[in-house]
């Protein structure tokens, strides 16, 4: 599978988002995704499913080193004294000795960013996370984070799809060697009814959602679509056998606005 690189991290271009997946459904979807060829699984403390993600990983039979696992620290654990303990609790729920990527889930203005990033760097130095990064950081916060963090930041994970411009954030990530990871990449299903995407998809015998994910991958963006349907898992990863034209890419990029979350 294609990968997106960010300061030493090699992040598979398509992953499985697990927001709102719970219990046996979560474990089953993770297991099936890995058996279908996914090698990138995204979770978070606040999703309350790290335990089930770990169960799905083990049930799949895929070797641990072949899967890129991301989790995120919630904002209430951003003080230095809390962050390492919180990371260890995530590892215990996942039943892993380390994650591939540990992110700060959202900015938290109540705790100095330098304090939080210093603690995040120490988590990496302690071997609890192979890479560290941020999520939902705008350009100004990316600049502040890069300047304050003693370890390289691998990525910024942000909402991104054809309806929402993120060119400035993507450019900031590229400037600092960071990868860009897109959550809600099919706009919570909205793209499935998009006529322009469907028309483009007809030319390639692909769905509107597949066109959307391909548009992201061709921008060197990693996308983590979430689904609870087994049939969608195959569709979402089946995007590496076609390539959108320059005109297609331009047309899709023209759809978006800066305020379309």
TrEMBL record:
Keywords: NADP, Oxidoreductase. Coiled coil: none annotated. InterPro entries: AKR (IPR020471), Aldo/ket_reductase_CS (IPR018170), NAD(P)_OxRdtase_dom_sf (IPR036812), NADP_OxRdtase_dom (IPR023210). It catalyses: hydroxyacetone + NADP(+) = methylglyoxal + NADPH + H(+). The keyword Oxidoreductase applies. One of its GO terms (biological process) is methylglyoxal catabolic process. The record marks 72 as: Lowers pKa of active site Tyr. The active site is at residue 47. GO terms for molecular function: methylglyoxal reductase (NADPH) (acetol producing) activity. Pfam families: Aldo_ket_red (PF00248). Substrate binds at residue 105. Residues 14-255 form the NADP-dependent oxidoreductase domain. Belongs to the aldo/keto reductase family. This is Aldo/keto reductase.
């Amino acid at each position: 599978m294609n990968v997106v690189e960010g300061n030493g991290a090699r992040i598979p271009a398509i992953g499985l988002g697990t927001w709102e997946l719970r219990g046996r459904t979560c474990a089953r979807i993770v297991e099936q995704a890995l058996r279908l060829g996914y090698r990138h699984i995204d979770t978070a403390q606040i999703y309350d499913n790290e335990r089930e993600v770990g169960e799905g990983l083990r049930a799949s039979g895929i070797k641990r080193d072949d899967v890129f696992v991301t989790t995120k620290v919630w904002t209430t654990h951003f003080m230095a004294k809390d962050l390492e303990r919180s990371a260890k609790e995530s590892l215990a729920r996942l039943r892993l000795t380390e994650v591939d990527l540990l992110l700060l889930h959202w900015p938290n203005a109540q705790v100095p960013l330098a304090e939080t990033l210093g603690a995040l760097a120490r988590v990496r130095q302690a071997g609890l996370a192979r890479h560290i990064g941020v999520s939902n950081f705008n350009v100004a916060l990316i600049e502040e984070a890069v300047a304050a963090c003693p370890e390289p930041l691998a990525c910024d994970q942000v909402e991104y799809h054809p309806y929402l411009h993120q060119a400035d954030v993507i450019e900031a990530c590229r400037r600092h060697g960071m990868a860009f990871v897109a959550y809600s990449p099919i706009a919570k299903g909205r793209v499935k009814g998009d006529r322009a995407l469907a028309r483009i998809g007809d030319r390639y015998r692909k769905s509107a959602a597949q066109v959307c994910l391909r548009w992201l991958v061709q921008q060197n963006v990693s996308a983590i679509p979430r689904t609870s349907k087994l049939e969608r898992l195959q569709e979402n990863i089946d995007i590496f056998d076609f390539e959108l034209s320059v005109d297609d890419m331009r047309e899709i990029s023209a759809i978006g606005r800066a305020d379309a979350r």
